[in-house]
Amino acid sequence: MTSTLRRVSAALVTSAALVAGTLGLAAPAEAASLCATDCISYAPVSADTRTVRASVVTTGYVNVTAEVWAADKSARVSYMVDGQTETWTSSWTFTSTGGLKQNTTYAVKLVAKDMLGKTWTEWRSVRVKQRTATWHITKINLADDSDYAGAGEFKAGWKAGTTVKSPLWSGWQSKSSGGSWTLSSSNAAATIVRVGETSSPKVFLELLDDDTDIGDFGCGTGFAPSWDWGTNSCADWATAGAYVNLPETSATTSFTLYVAKTAPVKFTVQGYVVTTVS
Q: What keywords are assigned to this protein (predicted)?
């Protein structure tokens, strides 16, 4: 009898084990954590004159964040954003949100987190590039000298960004409607060099025409460009200006400046800028 009971009990235990195995009731093994060790397989960073970018590839589906920090990792200076909508993926492309300086090295912090909450952090170093812009004014085409009788008597000044060159020539120069000034690229007064130039600076050139009696040029006052336009008993003046979009590569860009349609002195300005990005 005892032997029979033992055989029955053993059979019941074996049957229960088979049922549990069939139904998947055995305790599951602990899932592997991707980011318990290195889960970032590829993460190059690059920069132009204003933006840092990072491309991150991971060994599996994780969540990644990126930030730009000071080179010594002492403080965060910019967040980085990813253009995709997925929360968990294996490929990420980040772009900084601003606040970076040209010719400056930063640290990029990359943090990957897997679905078990484990994180893996890596750092990269990147230098924001610098743009040097050499501006040249080459020609001023005078459409209307603003004088009803005879030629106008002119002084001029110009600026690129915040850098001013004035006067563009010494003394007063006589010019009638339809005339022009041609300026050599070797003319120091017609050239401005700016290191760390922005991506879309504005360029201005102002012409002032004496509008008083002969021999009383400008009512005896000195010429200081005001970067606007107007008329009074002493002079008529106008400013031509335009924003110039500069590339993120070394290149030469031509530009043309225009005055307002209602300006008393009417002219256009031609020039070019040589940018070096390094």
A: Signal
pTM recorded for the entire structure: 0.81
Residues of the chain with pLDDT under 70: 1-31, 212-218, 220-221
Closest by CA position to 133, among listed 191, 182, 206? 191
Domain boundaries, the chain: 34-128, 131-277
Do residues 229 and 265 touch, judged by C-beta distance below 8 A? yes
Amino acid at 254: S
Q: What is the pLDDT of residue 220?
A: 60
Distance CA 239, CA 57 (A): 52
Reply yes or no: is the peptide bond before residue 167 cis, omega within 30 of 0. yes
Q: Which phi and psi angles does 128 have, rounded to 5°?
A: -75, 130
Residues 51 and 60: their CA atoms lie apart, in Å, by: 28
In this structure, what are the phi and psi dihedrals at residue 190, rounded to the nearest 5 degrees? Answer: -100, 15
**131-277, superfamily in CATH?**
C2 domain (2.60.40.150)
CATH fold match for the domains 34-128 and 131-277: yes
Beta-carbon contacts of 12 under 8 Å, excluding residues fewer than 6 positions away, are: none
CATH number of 34-128: 2.60.40.10
pLDDT tens-digit series, residues 169-183: 999 999 999 999 999
User: Using one digit for the tens of pLDDT, what is the confidence trace for 125-171?
Assistant: 999 999 999 999 999 999 999 887 778 999 999 999 999 999 999 99
